[in-house]
Amino acid sequence: MQIVLFEPEIPPNTGTIARLCAATKTRLHLIEPLGFSLEDRYLKRAGLDYWPEVNLAVWPTWEAFAATLQDPREAVLTSARQGRSLFEYAFNGRESLVFGPETRGLPDWLWSKSSNRLRIPIWGRVRSLNLANAAAVCLYEAYRQLGTV
Fold it and tell me: Which end of the chain is more exposed for a tag (fewer CB within 10 A), N or C?
């Protein structure tokens, strides 16, 4: 399993996700441009002193990251509104969970490249979940299905 943040914008979200990745030994990929510096104090604060435990890769473009995938179907795009329910998806452990920027989500051109999509069901009046919460929900559901937790 891997988590991919496409053009993340908010440092505390990325820091919190980095901490999640350290706790679960999950690789974290950041696709540039980033909305912050990797030296940002809020990013560092959210990740606490776990940054040395984060298996982090930073990529200049989606294409550079995608070239590392053995199978393009391994990229699972996430959305608040598109795709099948997270709880209907059968994980195999080779997925890269891809999350879009907090203010706009994944771009249409990226959606057109994949039919491998999932969403976290939301039945309240909330538009979407916080990015770090969404990443945690998806990652732990994947690990639950795989018998890791």
Answer: C
Domains of the chain by residue range = 2-145
Residue 41 has pLDDT above 80, yes or no: no
- List, in order, residues 6 or more apart from 58 with CB less than 8 Å away: 29, 30, 32, 34, 38
How many helices and strands, by DSSP H and E, does the chain display? 5, 7
pLDDT of residue 82: 84
Architecture label for domain 2-145: 3-Layer(aba) Sandwich (3.40)
Rounded to 10 degrees, what is the CA torsion of 54, 59, 64, 65?
A: 30
Please indicate, yes or no, whether the overall pTM of this predicted structure exceeds 0.90: yes
**Which region, left, alpha or beta, applies to residue 129 given φ > 0 means left and ψ of -120 to 50 means alpha?**
beta
